[in-house]
């Protein structure tokens, strides 16, 4: 596996949005690993953590997009500090890739106290009765098993001795049936349940929480809103879709000391969709 550091030539124009506003410096001296972070929610989370002072490893499958993300993060979130950003191409569903990402992160930064399990896939839409079972297995392997695998490795490499904070990126589809993304929703329900089990098992040294976004304006979720974004947004009490920064700011809080008594929690970030009885 080849690492990607600042200075490599980006092959896409913009990797994603800039950093959100956190508490400057409150994560200084800590190291985070964010999976699936070349764009969208993962990228915004990486930017948030960097803006708050952490060193961050990002990983994703496509080296070109990852390279562009690293360069943009260094410029926009890390204040030009190349030494705080590391990009490692890899597939979350591959055990060897996970092991190398964790090992290289600890080798580079000397610690790994924050893990954000953001990598996820959804190749199956529609009713479960029509779902290809091999695709369903792949969804669970990447969305659930890989999250546990990453935490096992982080626990062995650093967190087990020193403690840390974990946030799993779930979905409101894991809290209520959608009929549209049924297999994906079932995997996210499993991830939410896994979060609770891990919180009970790993406290007090390691806190494990989850966030459950509704529709967020990312390339990953395009199919859920591109045909009628205004109509989809109208179903939300906040009358807009989510942004990656909406999720990133909550994640930043959860991994900070301000959330030191919060574990086993899943926070909905849904613009009020579930409160209104609607799931956009």
TrEMBL record:
One of its GO terms (molecular function) is oxidoreductase activity. It comes from the Bacteria. Residues 10-25 have a biased composition (Low complexity). Residues 1-27 are annotated as: Disordered. InterPro entries: NAD(P)-bd_dom_sf, Sc_DH/Rdtase_CS, SDR_fam. The keyword Oxidoreductase applies. The keyword Calcium does not apply. PANTHER family: DEHYDROGENASE/REDUCTASE (SDR FAMILY) MEMBER 4 (PTHR43943), DEHYDROGENASE_REDUCTASE 4 (PTHR43943:SF2). This is SDR family oxidoreductase.
């Amino acid at each position: 596996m080849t690492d990607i550091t600042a200075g490599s030539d980006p092959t896409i124009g913009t990797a994603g949005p800039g950093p959100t506003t956190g508490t400057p410096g409150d994560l200084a001296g800590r190291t985070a690993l964010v999976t699936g972070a070349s764009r969208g929610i993962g990228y915004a989370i990486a930017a948030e953590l960097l803006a708050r002072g952490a060193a961050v490893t990002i990983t994703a499958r496509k080296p070109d997009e990852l390279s562009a993300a690293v360069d943009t993060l260094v410029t926009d979130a890390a204040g030009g500090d190349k030494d705080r950003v590391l990009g490692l191409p890899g597939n979350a569903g591959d055990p060897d890739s996970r092991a190398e990402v964790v090992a290289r992160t600890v080798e580079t930064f000397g610690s790994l106290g924050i893990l954000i399990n953001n990598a996820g896939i959804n190749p199956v839409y529609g009713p479960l009765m029509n779902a290809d079972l091999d695709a369903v297995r792949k969804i669970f392997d990447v969305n659930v098993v890989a999250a546990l695998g990453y935490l096992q490795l982080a626990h062995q490499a650093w967190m087990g001795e020193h403690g840390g904070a974990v946030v799993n990126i779930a979905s409101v589809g894991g809290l209520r049936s959608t009929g549209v993304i049924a297999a994906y929703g079932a995997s996210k329900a499993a991830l939410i349940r896994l979060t609770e089990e891990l919180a009970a098992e790993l406290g007090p040294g390691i806190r494990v929480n989850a966030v459950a976004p509704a529709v967020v304006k990312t390339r990953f979720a395009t199919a859920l809103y591109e045909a009628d974004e205004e109509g989809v947004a109208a179903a939300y009490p906040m009358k807009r879709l989510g942004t990656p920064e909406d999720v990133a700011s909550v994640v930043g809080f959860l991994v900070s000391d301000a959330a030191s008594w919060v574990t086993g929690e899943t926070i909905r970030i849904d613009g009020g969709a579930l409160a209104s009885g609607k799931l956009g």
